[in-house]
């Protein structure tokens, strides 16, 4: 193709031809240089610069080859570009960089929400007023709205970075609906008696997985990705470094950076692991297996069908979903008076604000004597007097 097969060759006595791939099309363009050895070298460098610009999304065909007839076929995206078209192109570029579960979620959001509601608009016509009007008709919870806007914001941020638009309406802003206060929410942990009923209704591997879930607070996707090499028996810790989500062919990184953690192996969790060790330690690296086929769990959804439903039906316990085992762990720890910061770290939260927001109802009852020690120490009948906030305490010695 060229003097070294790299897509550069003399085209005439006064020009050099460069060949490259752009948007799946093989392109040939000429530069007006005599095909001397030095100019061929320059052409190779020019081709390398073009390919680098293509790889990072900054290549502008018309600006690089202004007189090319082919340039009209590759009009660079502008602020007038249709949002639906842009989202399709963006997702195709973005998918290789996303976790499988996130890519599947974004594809669903774009197909079912963003394109139907915003697809016919131009990027430059998207405003906060338009977002409010469109999303006000989308009858879902604020949690779902957050997911939709996270996807949209990511696409629009890339449009700004690629200089397709200068700014966008979702920078520093989110649309939320006023929601009625719910009498009940999804936090519905199992009582001690309910846990015991579930465990009595389970045997072998099912028993071990249930007890381990109750006493570690792991997300189901984290639990099924655990390997024996993640257990530090000496330090008494369980290393959570991966998760297996729906759609992923292999385990991926945890939900967030803070989800990558080492949690304390409490006694009941150790007991469950020792029982499980008899069943799967020599079978391979995975700790917990699907009891139906003895294979590693494909994704957490199978827990619902193959493990959870049989145990719930046999126990007679009021129905809840498997994720409630994580809520059960949090409520037990907080009700027992464990430090909320420690509980947050064990569960993989960035800080304890989520613990306070979601599980706050269990915190006041964490210690029936809460406040008593301070009252005894600093109250009217206490043996220690407090200093004025404005003056240091003075010893009358």
TrEMBL record:
This is Integrase. Gene3D superfamilies: 1.10.150.130, Intergrase catalytic core. One of its GO terms (biological process) is DNA integration. Belongs to the 'phage' integrase family. Residues 185-372 form the Tyr recombinase domain. It holds the Pfam family Phage_integrase. One of its GO terms (molecular function) is DNA binding. CDD domains: INT_ICEBs1_C_like (cd01189). InterPro entries: DNA_brk_join_enz (IPR011010), Integrase-like_cat_sf (IPR013762), Integrase_catalytic (IPR002104), Integrase_recombinase_N (IPR010998), Integrase_SAM-like_N (IPR004107), Min27-like_integrase_DNA_bind (IPR022000), Tyrosine_recombinase_XerCD (IPR050090). SUPFAM superfamilies: DNA breaking-rejoining enzymes. Keywords: DNA integration, DNA recombination, DNA-binding. It comes from the Bacteria.
């Amino acid at each position: 193709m060229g003097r070294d097969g790299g897509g550069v060759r003399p085209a005439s006595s006064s020009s050099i031809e460069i060949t490259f791939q752009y948007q799946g099309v093989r392109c040939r363009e000429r530069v007006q240089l005599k095909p001397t050895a030095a100019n061929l070298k320059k052409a190779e460098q020019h081709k390398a610069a073009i390919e680098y610009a293509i790889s990072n999304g900054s290549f502008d065909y018309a600006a690089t080859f202004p007189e090319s007839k082919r340039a009209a076929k590759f009009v660079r995206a502008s602020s007038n570009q249709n949002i639906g078209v842009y989202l399709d192109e963006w997702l195709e570029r973005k998918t290789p960089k996303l976790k499988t579960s996130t890519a599947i979620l974004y594809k669903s959001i774009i197909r079912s929400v963003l394109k139907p509601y915003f697809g016919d608009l131009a990027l430059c016509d998207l405003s906060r007023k338009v977002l409010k009007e469109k999303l006000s008709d989308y009858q879902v919870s604020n949690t779902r709205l957050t997911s939709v806007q996270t996807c949209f914001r990511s696409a629009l941020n890339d449009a700004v970075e690629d200089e397709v638009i200068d700014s966008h309406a979702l920078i520093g802003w989110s649309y939320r609906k006023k929601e009625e206060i719910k009498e009940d929410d999804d936090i519905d942990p199992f009582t001690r008696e309910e846990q015991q009923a579930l465990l009595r209704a389970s045997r072998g591997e099912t028993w071990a997985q249930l007890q381990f879930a109750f006493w570690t607070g792991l997300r189901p996707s984290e639990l099924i990705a655990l390997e024996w090499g993640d257990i530090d028996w000496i330090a008494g810790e369980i290393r959570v470094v991966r998760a297996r989500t729906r759609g992923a062919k292999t385990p991926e990184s945890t939900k967030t950076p803070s989800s990558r953690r080492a949690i304390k192996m409490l006694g009941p969790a150790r007991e469950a692991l020792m029982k499980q060790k008899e069943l799967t330690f020599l079978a391979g690296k995975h700790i917990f297996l699907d009891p139906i086929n003895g294979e590693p769990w494909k994704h957490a959804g199978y827990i619902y069908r193959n493990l959870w439903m049989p145990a719930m039906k046999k126990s007679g316990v009021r129905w809840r979903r498997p994720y409630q085992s994580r809520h059960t762990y949090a409520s037990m720890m907080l009700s027992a008076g464990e430090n909320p910061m420690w509980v947050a770290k064990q569960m993989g939260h960035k800080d304890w604000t989520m613990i306070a927001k979601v599980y706050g109802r269990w915190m006041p009852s964490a210690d029936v004597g809460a406040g008593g020690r301070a009252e005894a120490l600093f109250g009217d009948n206490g043996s220690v007097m407090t200093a004025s906030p404005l003056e240091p305490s003075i010893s009358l010695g």
